[in-house]
Structures
1.
Amino acid sequence: MNSARCFAYMPGPKPLPLLGNSWRFALGSKPWRTSALDITLWTLRMLAGDGGAAKVAKLFGHPDLVFPFCADETARIYRREDAMPYRAVAPCLKHYKQELRKDFFGDEPGLIGIMETLVDNDRELPSDFLTELYKWALESVGAWALGSRLGCLNDNDTEAREIIRCIHGFFHSVPVLELSAPLWRLYATTAYKTYVEALDAFRMICLKRLADKGVCADIAKISGEKVATILALDLLLVGVDTTAAAAASTMYMLATNPRAKKRLQKELDSYLPTNRTVTSKDLNKLPYLRACIKETLRIKPVILGNGRCIQSDAVISGYEVPKGSHVVFPHYIMSNEEKYFPSPQEYVPERWLRDNDVNQREVIRCSVSRSRKGVVAGCEQEILRDSEQVLHSSDDDVTAVCRKQKEVGIHPFASLPFGFGRRMCIGKRFAEAELQLLLAKTFHRYDVSWSYGALTYSVTPTYVPNEPLKFTLTPRKKDRLHKYS
Ligand code: HEM
């Protein structure tokens, strides 16, 4: 603490007298735009300099935000977390729960084979495919949390449509309420009205749907119906946009990286059962699929940074940081830096495979026997013929990236898409299972491709593609189409 520099010297945008820094987000010009927080983070990274930290001070109604851009610092701060680490509740959520609907929430803080019918004559998915992914994620989390089907995948279900509309309204209004000047404290702005309407609708759905099955029903038995409803609400709010965004990005990454896609399809052809329900044991045999998801969440994490409110004065990256400041761990930046992930923009799921992964050995054996004997036992010839060229053309690049990655190792705090410690994502295992199932079935059945330019992304506050997700789905083998129920 004695040798630390004063907090005032930590770099960051200079606040104006009275207006602080909120005016930057209120004006919304880059790099201070709520929908382009990725660019905001890169700007702060530049201001922080090598291995340092940057801050955004004096935002209305907010403690100062501190951004340490170093995985070692991240590890150190996370590890000194108290028994109950504190992540500040977004002021607008606090307002809804603890002021506007206090009568309901009291003092409980809470936690926070349809594709075939969608393709057109050119086998392209519709421009609102992201909405379909939202529906899928909501249906899954609803079944898990509430123990009943919500009917989101049924086009005619008006309640389901209402739920989706509310989800969009909620997620688009939160960044506006949080980062722009909090005019909603003075009068009901449009974003505020959308936000409250969405939360009210969700609350009603959770109350109505709380059945005697599902995770929340178990909670209801122990802690009462109200706590269970609050938990259900939180799970629905955080478990839909996140998983849908992760699914969209992984499909895009694989569709635009034929080498990785072919390797995944080879793994699926060998290990995914098609004549019975897929179990968690089957998913355990798909390490390359898991690596594809990890690699996607490294390049395009759904949440760009995790926050903690520090409970005592601390030294961060050599600066004194006062108690009460919010530290934001910008893992999106670290996981895209050469220092932690060589060739960071290259999509190389192999960097996540361990030497002893079953299918890693299998693939090596396969390519050896292929080159030696010209045949590959147990592998489908047709798929290999297709993939031969792509596999060979870029094998060297992949090996080079993996070699460099092995040299630097994977820092356990450089890519944390689900957070860390006691407040990490409670839906991680569930989300991973959902993603694995959706992607395994889709890529096994279809050759997913992308015929448009590179996707651009916005923060809403999840990091999602802006353009319509018009993937093309070409069936890989006729007989596979009939095997799925
Ligand atoms: C790919 C999908 C998902 C991603 C990337 C994701 C990411 C995250 C992150 C980064 C956090 C903050 C962690 C921290 O501060 O250390 C979080 C918290 C949380 N997530 Fe997820 N999440 C996903 C899916 C889900 C799902 C499906 C659910 C529930 C069904 C869920 C429930 C939660 C809850 C309740 C919290 C708050 C935990 C707490 O405050 O203690 N998430 N998630």
2.
Amino acid sequence: MLHKIELPAYDQNLERIVQIQQKIISFVCDPNTPLTPGRDVFKRVFNDQIGSWLYQWLQRKHKEKTFYQELCDLVAHLRQYSSLRAQLIDAFQNDIDFFSHLDDASFVFFFNTRLPKKVGQMIAPVMIAFYDYVVQAGFPPCIGTFDRKEFLKTFWNTNKNLGVCPACDSPKPDINECDVDHFLPKSLYPFLSVCASNLAPVCLVCNRSVKRSADPIDQAQSAPLTNTFHPFGKPALDAIKVAVNRNTKGGEYQIYLEEMTGGISRRVASLKRVYKLETRWLERLKAEIESIRKTIKSARKRLLREGMSANDIVDALLNMILEDYDHKIGVEHYYILRSSYARYALCDTEEFSSLVELLS
Ligand SMILES: [Zn+2]
């Protein structure tokens, strides 16, 4: 993700859900858990209110079975292969702790790499359902008063200065037109379905049309976390260049992303693959250039009157865009493109001349 965003506290609401998920895992892994635990068992393990709610909630149907039946199948499976219990508990604990390992090259996600696939498939639906039916639809009163809308409000309150979609720099989405993106998709990382550090609001286009369930990290390669940007810990804009150019005078404009120091690293490659900004931004770039050209034309009379040369006028206006970078980036939408174009036009003689010609 491009922009630096702060991780809101959410008043421990989401943590409470993660704790329930963790307790469910301990529950199915407990050798004393009956094969078909009744409401009383749930009440004893989770407390009266939560146990009762959970038992009822698990009766919800998922495909041909209920979530309850799926958990019972898992209890039976773990009776047969008891060594998997420790693996399942470890995998959950390891994966939900990923945020404190962003700089740890040795970190790997256990769900995808160590946990047997069958166990993963058995536990994933109920983990994902906690997001779909609890965060999306709203918590039951026994857990708290929190829902998707509350989540978005808290996020934007914490990030008051952010005026754009953190992933694509388009205008800040209205709460009703804002999606909660699982940075690491819940279909591939079900243990992170309600982890606050994995949830970031983005615009509908980013979430539904472009990113969808694309994995921002490459599990097949080593050090997945140190080779990715992350919405809260490692924003891309701190480390990349967004460059604009055109092959020939009058040719089509191009945008390319690379490391600040040059080159396409693994993390830049995955940023390009997941958000496709270089192509998505092309039309918008043209609009930003058009707006800069209009500004130059409209400044013409005043500045010529003040005795500035056409060259000086263009130079001053482009430099002004760059000088404003620090306080306009992330506040004004598409300032990335505006400033990237200004940088290009200041360095490229032909492009600069084409702007000076506007004043002749
Ligand atoms: Zn977006």
